């Protein structure tokens, strides 16, 4: 959140703000669970690498990955920036190579 605030306060352009927002979305999705009834966030108890085939885990990765691809297609995020954010925020958490990550998600 601090990186997003800093970018905003410094008058960053739309692409930078989109990148910082995307990073924050990934961090939230990977480290917090949201209660479906109350919307409250709690630290996740999932060990991601041990639960890669759990539908909820895979669904969260797929959503966040597709969100990044959508930002690229709308011109809000450069491809190289997206690759770096996805590598650090999603792929490294799985322990997979980028190629195996794509296969895992069905691409």
Trace the largest sheet across and list its strands.
1-2
Helix content estimate: 55-70%
- Shape descriptor reads globular
Which structural class fits the helix and strand makeup?
mainly alpha
Order of helix and strand elements from N to C terminus? HHEEHHH
Beta-strand residue fraction = 5-15%
- How many individual β-strands? 2
What is the count of helical runs?
Answer: 5
Radius of gyration: 14 Å
Q: Unreliable stretches, pLDDT < 50, 5 or more residues?
A: none
Q: From the structure provided, what is the oligomeric state, counting identical versus distinct chains? A: single chain
**Terminal CA distance:** 30 Å
Sheet with most strands: 2 strands, antiparallel
Mean pLDDT across all amino acids: 95
Can you offer a commentary on this structure?
It contains five helices and two strands, in the order H-H-E-E-H-H-H. With 107 residues, the chain is mostly helical. It has a two-stranded antiparallel sheet with strand order 1-2. Helix 1 (2-9) runs antiparallel to helix 2 (14-31). The longest helix is centred in the middle third of the chain and has 19 residues, at 55-73. The radius of gyration is 14 Å and the shape is globular. The mean pLDDT is 95.
Task: List the SSEs and their pairings.
Blueprint: H1 2-9, H2 14-31, E1 32-34, E2 41-43, H3 55-73, H4 79-94, H5 98-105
Antiparallel strand pairs: 1-2
Helix pairs in contact: 1-2, 2-3, 2-4, 3-4
Short description:
By secondary structure, the protein is mainly alpha-helical. About 65% of the residues lie in helices and about 5% in strands.
């Amino acid at each position: 959140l601090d990186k997003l605030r800093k970018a905003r306060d410094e008058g960053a352009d739309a692409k930078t703000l989109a990148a910082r927002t995307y990073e924050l979305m990934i961090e939230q999705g990977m480290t917090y669970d949201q209660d479906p009834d109350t919307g409250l966030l709690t630290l996740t108890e999932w060990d991601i690498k041990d639960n890669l085939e759990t539908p909820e885990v895979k669904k969260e990765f797929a959503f966040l990955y597709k969100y990044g691809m959508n930002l690229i297609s709308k011109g809000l995020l450069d491809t190289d920036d997206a690759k770096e954010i996805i590598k650090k925020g999603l792929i490294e958490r799985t322990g997979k190579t980028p190629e195996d990550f794509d296969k895992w998600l069905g691409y």
